[in-house]
Specification:
By secondary structure, the protein is an alpha/beta fold. It is about 25% helix and about 25% strand. It has eleven helices and 19 strands. The protein has a 16-stranded parallel β-sheet that branches. Helix 11 links the parallel strand 18 and strand 19. It starts with 8 loop residues before the first helix and ends with a strand.
Length: about 450
């Protein structure tokens, strides 16, 4: 290889041995260290004199302690964790300029060191420049941890995530000023004033909320939302309004006596997951939601939702012209319900049916459709059936899809685990003997 005339060989060798990372400015090094746990960032101080104090300027602190999983009654593990975290805050060059705190650890009001330490770390991190606050606490008592009120006044906060034994608000009105918040994630015991919080988040785009309501509420979700995951843990009635035209992802789960919705058409939605049930609400509430999201490309109807739909003799489904993947989890098999739904899925490419049996209901309602399903001849390529027992209606609908599915390439049949060996062999032989419309079709039975 000819050496470039403009650079001597010795100079090039010296350049290859140069520690270019250490030559970077502190701001760049701190940015790199912000992606690793703080314990790892502190360990870089032994690399060289250049790295000795770099970690002290890192504005993202990430602490995680899993000693609560070890049943350490002496608390020695948490004491060591507490000493480390306290040293980091004490040695940090500017602890009031923390941009992000991610803290995951156990919490106990019965342990004074534990309770006071967690409270002190949270208070130390909450400041005027805080942009991310992620708190996960594993509590061993019902009281949990009350987040300081001023977290809701951090105007630069972009991401707020609370999970575990955390209480967000007491029962009195507070000042909420989350002007920059874009992501809110709540997986906690209870939330008061949820509607008041959301109304003060003018830029929020992602909401993941799983909590317990202690009194009936009306929740009006922000118009700026793009992703929504909503789950309620108890039986308290609620009224939810969803009018965010920019939503692309929706996941709703609840089981309650009364849970009403007011929704607008969502033309931009691409993925929808529904696992919802209300014993005292008409099926029209659910149908209106399906109509609003009918442009989705991916739809999952889970057990509670299909149980709600099965309350109606013949639910009137909307036309799903854009749907390419459908997952249906049934509490019991019902062929007329499935055929009614599939007849509305004109361009379906992937279909998954799962039986999550509630009662051993034997259905024999199969009737061969007068017209073939529109998706079978031109679109459906993947079919997955979970919990197959080989009963009359199941075998009829599987045989129909196999015979009419001209483009089917992948079929997975998972047999019901409770079947005995003789029944499994009989079901297996019948499946393999079914005619197939696609020459590329392979059946995988497990």
């Amino acid at each position: 290889m000819v050496e470039p005339p403009w650079q001597p060989k010795q100079a090039r060798l010296e350049n290859n041995n140069t520690d270019r990372i250490s030559a970077l400015p502190n701001t760049v090094l701190c940015y790199i260290l912000s992606f690793v746990p703080t314990k790892t960032a502190v360990r870089t101080s032994v690399l060289s004199p250049r790295w000795r104090h770099v970690w002290k300027d890192v504005k993202t602190l990430h602490f995680s302690d899993d000693s609560h999983e070890l049943f350490d009654e002496t608390g020695e593990s948490f004491k060591r964790f507490s000493i480390f975290v306290n040293n980091v805050f004490n040695l940090h060059n500017d602890p009031r300029d923390i941009h992000a705190l991610r803290l995951s650890c156990g919490h106990s009001n019965n342990d004074p060191l534990n309770a006071s330490s967690v409270a002190a770390w949270v208070r130390a991190a909450i400041g005027p420049n805080l942009e991310e606050f992620d708190l996960t606490l594993f509590c061993n008592d019902a009281r949990g941890f009350v987040v300081p009120h001023n977290i809701l006044s951090c105007t630069k906060l972009i991401t707020l995530s609370l999970s575990g034994g955390v209480h967000l608000l007491p029962k009195q009105p507070l000042t909420v000023d989350l002007l920059s918040l874009k992501t809110l994630s709540l997986d906690i015991d209870d939330v008061d004033w949820i509607d008041g919080i959301l109304s003060k988040c003018p830029q929020i785009e992602t909401l993941s909320a799983c909590f317990t309501l202690r009194q009936p509420v009306r929740v009006c979700l922000p118009l700026t939302l793009k992703k929504l995951k909503f789950a309620i843990k108890n039986q308290v009635a609620a009224a939810v309004e969803i009018h965010a035209q920019g939503l692309t992802y929706i996941s709703i789960a609840h089981a309650a006596s009364r849970f009403s919705y007011r929704v607008s058409e969502m033309n931009n939605v691409r993925e929808v997951s529904l696992n919802m049930y209300a014993t005292h609400e008409p099926i029209d509430v659910l149908i209106k939601i399906l109509i609003a999201v009918r442009r989705t490309e991916i739809l999952a109807l889970h057990r509670f939702t299909t149980k709600w739909l099965l309350r109606a003799q013949v639910p009137v489904f909307p036309e799903f012209h854009h749907l390419i993947r459908l997952e249906v989890v049934l509490p019991w098999f019902n062929s007329s319900f499935l055929m009614s739904l599939l007849s509305k899925c004109h361009k379906l490419q992937e279909l998954k049916i799962e039986i999550d049996e509630e009662l051993p209901i034997v259905s024999q309602s199969w009737m061969k459709p007068r017209r073939d399903l529109p998706c079978l001849a031109s679109y459906l390529s993947c079919f997955h059936f979970v919990g197959y027992r080989g009963i009359h209606d199941e075998s009829k609908i599987v045989g129909y899809i196999l015979e009419r599915g001209l483009l089917l390439s992948t079929i997975i049949i998972e047999l019901e685990k409770s079947l005995d060996d003789d029944t499994k062999n009989d079901v297996l032989m019948k499946l393999l003997a079914m005619p197939r419309g696609s020459p590329l079709c392979e059946i995988n039975i497990c």
